[in-house]
Design a protein that fits this description.
Radius of gyration: 18 Å
Distance between the termini: 48 Å
Order of helices and strands: HHHH
Helix content: over 70%
Structural class: mainly alpha
Length: about 120
């Protein structure tokens, strides 16, 4: 009796990582935006030049950006795919490969654009 290996546990773990990332990063981003709009943080502290310098020219900032973006892609695509099932649409294996393959390409392109 052969046991077929599934990729589903890997996809669910990526979904979990993305959900955790979204749960931690995005409320913090909302609070920062509110703090700036209420004047608690000077707007100059979050200027485009300063933020782009930190997130694109600093390895720590680049890693933060990657941790915020890449797992979020996987959480979103996994939720979309399984949301289709919830709505009664049952995409086949081809669409699953397309969804997750496109997300893999997007993840790789993001890493390349941020790090290089």
């Amino acid at each position: 009796m052969s046991q077929k290996r599934h990729i589903e546990p890997l996809l669910w773990s990526l979904f979990g990582a993305g959900g955790t990332t979204i749960a931690f990063f995005f409320p913090a981003m909302i609070l920062v935006i509110l703090a700036v709009s209420l004047g608690a943080i000077p707007a100059e502290a979050l200027s485009y030049e300063r933020m782009s310098d930190f997130f694109l020219n600093n390895l720590f900032g680049q890693l933060i950006l990657l941790v915020a973006l890449v797992p979020s892609y996987w959480a979103c695509i996994h939720r979309i795919y399984h949301g289709l099932h919830d709505l009664g649409f049952h995409p086949g294996a081809g669409l699953k490969v397309l969804f997750y393959g496109a997300t893999l390409v997007l993840s790789v392109v993001t890493v390349i654009l941020v790090l290089f």
